[in-house]
Amino acid sequence: MSQKTKKRRDEISKIVISEGKVKVKDLAHQFQVSSETIRKDLHFLDRMGVISKSHGGATVINDYFQLPLDVKLQENLEAKKHIARATLDLIEDGSMIYLDAGSTSIQVAKLLRVKRNLTVVTNSIQVANIVSDSEHNVIVCGGLLQKRGKALIGGYAVDVLKTIHIDVAITGSDGFKNMDGFTTFSLEEIAVRRQVHKSSDVNVIVCDASKFDKTSTYIYGKFSEYDYFVTDEQDPIRLKQVSGVRKIISVRSV
C-alpha cells in the first residue's frame, strides 16, 4: 500500500467514525479520486474492522460511537470533531496514552480505531466504554465517581497514575480567559490532572474556541508546562493568550 493510499484511508476512517456515516460520492469529491477508488478504500476498512461498508457509503460499527451520553448535548460539537482529528496525529501506534473525561477527549476516543495496539489510561467512564469496543487495552483509574462528569477522582486515581508511564496525555480545560494557565471547576480533579502531567512525556491540551472567553476556578497547569495546544481558534491575537505552550495547532472547523 502506498503512503498516499494509507493517508487517504486514515482520513476516511476519521471522517466515518466522527460523522457516523458518509457517502461514496462525497468522499470521491473531497479526495479528488474516482468512486471506484473510494469503494476499494471502504472495502479495505470494512475488512479491517474499522468501519462498516454500506450501500453507497459507510457507517460506524455501532450507534454508541455516534451518541456518547454527554456529547450529544455539548456545544461546538463540530469544532471538537475537527480538533480530535488533528489530535489523533499526535498519537503513535503502540503507545500508552491518557484521555480525561472532557467532551473533546471523548471525540478523540471515538477515532482511536484507526490506531493500532494502544493502551488507553483514563479516569472517564465514557471513554472507557468507547475504547472497550476496540482492540486497544484500557486501564481505568480507581477512585470516587464524580457523577456530573462521569470522572474518577481522588487518592485512588492518583495512586494508579503514579505507577504508569504515559507517552501522550490529552486533557481539556474549562476555560482560561485572563489566566496564566489552564483551569477546571473541579477542585477534586486538580490532583489527578497534575499527576497525569508528571507521568507523561508529552502533554496535550484540547480546547474549542469558546474556552478563550471562559474563566474557571482552579488552575491545574501553566501554559508553559504543556507541549501542544489543539484548538479551532484562528485569530492570532486570541491565540496569544496561550503563547506559552510549546506548539499551537489551529484547525478550521468549517
Describe the structure.
The protein is of the alpha/beta class and 254 residues long. It has helices at residues 3-19, 24-31, 35-47, 77-88, 103-111, 125-132, 155-162, 189-199, 236-239; strands spanning 21-23, 52-54, 57-59, 96-99, 119-122, 137-140, 144-146, 151-153, 166-171, 181-184, 200-206, 218-222, 228-231, 247-250. The chain has two domains: 3-61, Winged helix-like DNA-binding domain superfamily/Winged helix DNA-binding domain (Arc Repressor Mutant, subunit A); 77-250, 3-Layer(aba) Sandwich (Rossmann fold), CATH 3.40.50. It contains nine helices and 14 strands. A seven-stranded parallel beta sheet has the order 6-5-4-9-11-13-14, sandwiched between helices. The chain has a three-stranded antiparallel beta sheet with strand order 1-3-2. Helix 5 (103-111) packs parallel to helix 6 (125-132) and helix 7 runs parallel beside helix 8 (189-199). The protein is globular, with a radius of gyration of 18 Å. The two termini are 31 Å apart.
